[in-house]
Amino acid sequence: MDVGQIAGLIAAIAFAVLAGFLIYPLIRLGRLFDQLADTVKETGEHALPTLDESTATVQQVNKTLEDVNRISAAASTTAGNVGALTDLYGSMLGKPIIKLASAFFALRTTASSFFKGRRQQAQPAASSAPETGSSRAFHSHKGE
What is the largest CA-CA distance in the chain? Predict the structure, then answer.
């Protein structure tokens, strides 16, 4: 063996050792890719039922919202009807009740002024002025 062959043999051994060291990380990287592929496959298998369930949930929410819309529309219609009935009763009953109340007030005012006038006529004009304390004393001493 000459020097060139020995150098080639050393280079081949070094290459084999280097390949031995590099093969282990490559094997681990291959296993990582296998696990990654399995994870993606399982995720896809679990994602489809989840998507189906979410679709069903969205459909149920849409049905519920439609029911709520119908209920709120009915409540709005009912509120409008109640408002219209209130206006109707107010116009039908309010004006006559106000007229009746004003007629009773006028009757009461007239009756009270009539009875007040009769009381004033029944009292003498001299007694309508109030007596003071000193004039009473003067009148009581006159008789003595």
Answer: 181
Tally: H helices and E strands in the chain: 3, 0
| Cα within 13 Å of Cα(99), Cβ side | 6
* pTM > 0.70: yes or no: no
Closest CA to 83 of 91, 28, 119: 91
- Cα distance between residue 55 and residue 66, in whole Å: 17
Which residues are CB-neighbours of 66 under 8 A, at least 6 positions away?
A: none
pLDDT in tens, 94-108: 777 888 889 999 999
Neighbours of 32 (CB within 10 A): 10
